[in-house]
Amino acid sequence: MPMAVSPERPRSGITKLTGGRVVRGSELVEEDVWISSVTGKILNSQEVFYEHHVVADDIVDLQGKILCPGFIDVQFNGGFGFDFSTIPQDMATYRKGVGRLNRQLVRTGVTSYLPTIPSQLPEVYHNALPFLGPSGKERNPWEGSESLGAHCEGPFISPTKNGIHSLAVLQAAGNGFQDFEACYGAENLRASDTSPPAVSMITAAPEVAGVFEAIKETTRRGIKFSIGHTESTFEEATDAIHAGATMITHLFNAMRPLHHRNPGVFGTLGEAEAKERPYFGIISDGIHLHPTTVKIAWNAHPDGFILVTDAMKTVGLPDGVYDWTNGDRFVKKGPLLTREGTGTIAGSSATLIECASNFWTWSHATIPEVLRSVTSTPAEMLGIAERKGTLNPNADADLLVLDAQELANGRRNFTVHQVYKFGSLVYDGSEGVKADV
Ligand SMILES: [Zn+2]
């Protein structure tokens, strides 16, 4: 007798996430979120359920965990042993390295980011930038974290606020935007018919010759201009904002400090008009800034507050001495990273979720407020708030399932439980890594 074959329902590619605490604005609400691995987007649950009577392939009970958009890091220099600024002999090796990094980074909850290159010689930008532009076109979840375009930090910065950037490669921009084109490659600053420019953000010092003049053309091309590594006075920073600058790179670090008679770049957060206040990056790794400094920045302008890691390739590696570029080396000791010989702080070795946990521990910010600083605020700054950093219908289904714990010693910790990229579960902390690394 032939075996009865049960007719199989065609798979819809739809997952229903239920029983979670969902971040909606300033609230945590209990509601279901429907996502599609076919479109890679968040669905309108009313429509799905009541109008189309769609049946989910999978129903996931989140058991009270937090559901939030995937994290966005707008300043990330490398990790897991890979450095965006180190150019190998063979660019196929570079491409592979970027791919492997993306699949590792997504496991930390960062589902999209700006690969960042601190001050380098033009040839480094020319070689690297073609591989670092926006990478989500294929919408392939298994590629891991997605580049939203490169962040060029320098080399048009102040020689007295260089931090660990090599003085030998710093430049002025006497010919304005033309010098940006010569340094980064004109094709990397230009949108094509199908995609935005490879470069999404440039950090430069407005007082360096020619930089102020280049701001307008930079932003006209849809590239964000961020003030950083700068001796700018309050007035110079304000002028840069009027010319189109919308961001400050790692506020307080590598810039003139607040003085009561000249409040410097930080002073722009005190503007009466909210629209005149820029967004700003904050490194809350416990080393770059005192917890109180972080709180002052948050209180000054919570809507502009963006946590960044400024992480270097040593994230995910053991303590030791590591080669960097331009003949420099740095020393990793726990989360502390310094330039060998000088002791200067050299970026961080913290993950974004560690930075978020620190900020949550130090401040009175609520969970939705903390999470906003790594999701919707960076997305707004980049002008992509419709599709990233939100759980609204039609946004990309880049989601995190988080545990949030408040320990008896006052420490508060987020941990990444699951990561969805374009509607597919790519990391499950309870089952190990799904994405092939
Ligand atoms: Zn920097």
Automatic annotation (TrEMBL):
Binding site for Zn(2+): 153, 229, 250
Residue numbers binding substrate: 164, 253-254, 261, 288, 345-347
Domain Amidohydrolase-related residue range list: 66-425
E.C. numbers: 3.5.1.25
Pfam families xref list: Amidohydro_1 (PF01979)
Cofactor note: Binds 1 divalent metal cation per subunit.
Known catalytic reactions: N-acetyl-D-glucosamine 6-phosphate + H2O = D-glucosamine 6-phosphate + acetate
GO biological process, one term: N-acetylglucosamine catabolic process
Enzyme class (EC, first level): hydrolase
Alphabetically ordered keywords of this record: Carbohydrate metabolism, Hydrolase, Metal-binding
A single MF term (Gene Ontology): metal ion binding
Positions annotated as active site in the UniProt record: 310 (proton donor/acceptor)
Cofactor: a divalent metal cation
InterPro entries: Amidohydro-rel, GlcNAc_6-P_deAcase, Metal-dep_hydrolase_composite, Metal_Hydrolase
Domain of life: Eukaryota
Family per similarity comment: Belongs to the metallo-dependent hydrolases superfamily. NagA family.
Protein name (Swiss-Prot/TrEMBL): N-acetylglucosamine-6-phosphate deacetylase
Organism: Neohortaea acidophila
